[in-house]
């Protein structure tokens, strides 16, 4: 089945230790997004790729970076995680038209 | 500031009853989307309604949009225990599906 896959589902890291979250898709969608969702809050868009074009949200901290080496994969790098970065990180894809986004199951990040 | 705000924040109903959830937003939109999120999981796209549409149906779901009041409602008829989840409205301002702004969500509990 075509889908959006996120690995790992649960990630524990230490304060300040870099961490990379992975997203892959078999949908061949040209747009990929990363959202951060803290407990009981709305998902917040961090950035998105339209093909290889990177679009950063103005209020996304510099601590967050992303890479998209090819259509199928997109990575979220957190260079120096702080306690406030503990959240669910959601990857999503779309075709860029009006059909809604397809979300992965998320990676729950814990920062110790 | 947050674009979509759902009301109520939490809703508890008996199986078989209808559930109505409301969303208000602040600026003009191209379309509005509703998503469901089961606990600890990713979001699932339910339905999209464009700004020139007033009502849309999908199975047991009915969505209305009133652009003059900047509000939308999601009605789930004949609710089931499996409908227990959080429901989010999200607004798309540009129509390019590049950025959705989510509300904080409504927690729906359907009692068997």
Keywords:
heterodimer; A: mainly beta; B: 112 residues; 6-stranded mixed sheet; 5-stranded antiparallel sheet
How would you describe what is shown here?
The complex is a heterodimer of chains A (112) and B (112). By secondary structure, chain A is mainly β. In chain A, 0% of the residues lie in helices and 52% in strands. In chain A, the strands form two sheets. In chain A, strands 2, 4, 5, 6, 9, 10 and 11 form a seven-stranded mixed β-sheet that branches. Classes of the chains: A mainly beta (112), B mainly beta (112). At the A-B interface, strand 5, strand 9 and strand 10 of A face strand 4, strand 5 and strand 10 of B.
Q: What's this model, at a glance?
A:
The complex is a heterodimer of chains A (112) and B (112). Chain A is mainly β and 112 residues long.
What would you call the structural class of chain A?
mainly beta
- The average pLDDT of chain B is 91
Q: In angstroms, what separates the terminal alpha carbons of chain A?
A: 36 Å
How many strands in all of chain B? 11
Per DSSP, what share of the residues of chain A sits in E-state strands of 2 or more residues?
over 45%
Helix content of chain B: under 10%
> What is the subunit arrangement here?
heterodimer
Could you state the order of secondary-structure elements of chain B as H and E? EEEEEEEEEEE
Q: Radius of gyration of chain B, Cα only, in angstroms?
A: 13 Å
Tally the helices of chain A. Answer: 0
Task: Report the C-alpha radius of gyration of chain A, rounded.
Answer: 13 Å
